[in-house]
Design goal:
Blueprint lengths: L8 H17 L17 H17 L5 E2 L5 E5 L8 E7 L14 E3 L7 E2 L6 E2 L5 H4 L6 E3 L8 H19 L7 E7 L7 H4 L2 H4 L3 E5 L6 E3 L4 E10 L15 H11 L16 E9 L3 E10 L2 H20 L5 E10 L3 H4 L3 H13 L5 E2 L7 H7 L6 E2 L3 E2 L7 E3 H19 L2
The structure holds zinc ion.
Length: 421
């Protein structure tokens, strides 16, 4: 038994079910795969989606269905005439960064504040390096066995939405708005939200449960673009290359060296600073390809970073007239803020729900994107709420049962807040 208090009696009531659901869902391997064209990108997401459809129907959401692209939608009818329809969302897939096969979650009851040595691969959760862990003394924690990710990103969110909907369905005396549940594929590879059928979903607004520390919510994300630079040189047998060879790999090296090193990189920035991140380089003497992602909260600054990347490459490549440069930019997702600004009531309801659960709401600009970045831009205002999961995309991933229960309680409270609007 844990010694840490729950944030509310409601959270205490929801906790066992949230935990049981998380432990069940993480066992299905749902890593997405950007190399696959179809939706969902991997069969595990369909498998988990089928399980969720069954569970939603068992709760009483009779219209639960999985569509051809792997989206799971279901409705819990409201009981207050005139109340709006709101969406509760989580994503089915987990990050391709680490193995998600054979996840064996461990529950550490009543955490004592010390180092947690996991059984496999020498993985250690060290409170010295994880300030969030230090603040969870007395909590029950769910960890991995050390060799896979946990998948709390975003199965914690999924477990919370499911537990909240089950609670509301079992308590028709609680005033509630109509809830549309949505579980989406391929968030981690930036695809799911593009295929999301907003019209069929039919909600006025939605909330993703895909954040982290209890009390946090997000109504602002990076704006994002990717760039691909192709440098073409002149490849010649090196034995007879004098005055003929133009080495694209060396030109690419010079471009990388000329980019800012002590600023505008992920490892030198935080908070509201943007960056240029070179995340792949493939080069031969004949052809070099540099891939970079560019991020900023401000669209004008994002454009400046892209322009700097382009100007740097153009200048280096122009020093060798026989070399050629191709530069392609693609927008990835926009900062959700400029779309949410027009819907202050949506963000206010999130803040109110977090406050009702006993937390001082903390607005955290996300140095990444969420499904809500794209959904908000496409016309479904969708801020993001915490889940209680931590250290995402790593074998050190863990989640607090108390914080997950708090997130589920926030979802229940949102249904009540919107019922009265
Ligand atoms: Zn996520």
């Amino acid at each position: 038994m844990s010694s840490a208090p729950y944030s509310s009696a409601l959270a205490a009531e929801l906790a066992p079910e949230v935990l049981a659901r998380l432990l069940r869902y993480v066992r299905v391997d749902t890593r997405s795969d950007a190399a696959q064209e179809q939706s969902p990108s991997t069969p595990g997401q369909l498998e988990l989606g089928r399980l969720l459809v069954e569970e939603l129907r068992a709760i009483g959401l009779a219209d639960a269905e999985q569509d051809a692209n792997g989206f799971v939608f279901a409705t819990l009818a409201g009981n207050v005439p005139g109340a709006p329809v709101i969406g509760l969302l989580a994503h089915l897939d987990t990050s391709p960064d680490k193995s998600g096969t054979g996840v064996e979650p461990l529950v550490q009851s009543d955490y004592d504040g010390g180092r947690i040595a996991l059984p496999r691969c020498g993985t250690v959760l060290d409170p010295e390096r994880m300030p969030e862990l230090r603040s969870k003394v007395g909590h029950d924690l769910v960890t991995t066995s050390g060799d896979t990710l946990l998948g709390a990103d975003d199965k914690a969110g999924m477990a919370e939405v499911m537990a909240a909907v089950a609670h509301l369905a079992a308590h028709p005396e609680l005033p509630r708005a109509t809830i549309r549940v949505g579980f989406t594929p391929d968030e981690e590879i930036g695809r799911g939200a593009h295929l999301f059928d907003i019209e069929r979903f039919g909600a006025r607004c939605a909330y993703t449960f895909d954040g982290s520390e209890a009390g946090e919510f997000t109504d602002e994300t990076f704006s994002a673009a990717s760039a691909e630079l192709t440098i073409r040189g002149v490849e010649v047998h090196p034995g007879s290359a004098k005055d003929k060879l133009v080495n694209a790999a060396r030109l690419a090296g010079r471009v990388l060296a000329a980019l800012p090193q002590d600023r505008l990189t992920p490892e030198t920035t935080s908070g509201r600073e943007g960056f240029i991140h070179v995340d792949a380089l493939k080069a031969t003497a004949g052809t070099a390809r540099i891939h970079a992602i560019v991020r900023d909260f401000d669209d004008d600054k994002l454009a400046e970073h892209v322009a700097l990347l382009r100007a740097t490459a153009e200048q280096i490549v122009a020093s060798e007239p026989r070399a050629r440069l191709e530069f392609e930019v693609e927008p990835q997702y926009p900062n959700m803020r400029r779309h949410l600004e027009h819907h202050p009531d949506v963000v206010a309801a999130a803040e109110q729900a977090v406050r009702l659960e006993g937390f001082e709401p903390e607005r955290v600009p996300a140095r990444g994107g969420t499904d809500g970045s794209i959904l908000s831009a496409r016309g479904l205002p969708t801020p993001n709420l915490f889940t209680g999961g931590q250290e995402y995309h790593s074998v050190r991933e863990w989640a607090s049962v108390q914080d997950m229960a708090a997130a589920a309680a926030v979802a229940v409270r949102l249904a009540g807040i919107w019922a009265l609007r």
